Amino acid sequence: MGVGKSTVGRLLAERLGVGYRDTDEDIVAAQGRAIAEIFVDEGEAAFRAIEKAAVRAALTEHRGVVALGGGAVMDADTRALLAGHQVVYLSMDVEEAVKRTGLNVARPLLAVNPRKQWRELMEARRHLYEEVATAVVATDGRTPEEVTQAALDALELKQV
Known about the structure:
The protein contains eight helices and four strands.
């Protein structure tokens, strides 16, 4: 959360001369409501099912850069789908997350004690991010342009 998936994803797509797609944006457009509302109205399990379908559709239909929501890797089927793709895990520590988001924005999984919950989420997810990652790029103290270049370098991709 707040690591720069959307910003870096757009920059990567631009530099590679391909399209960009964000599964969170797909979900909001298809559902006609914010992700936080889906969590509140239907619960996390329902949201994760919607997210899984959105990721499958994006990976099937789109040939450019795809940004996934932070919890998408929790699903084993989604991790299996990612196996055939180049995946960049953008990492950051909790102090960077605080600087970037203040951990006070509408994040349904961080509603109470955001620092503690962020750490717990990362402990539960980090190994899954690393499992699917082709490359890990630290974002701490870097501009989006620097992160984008590091991702291109890590994947050994050429800009257009």
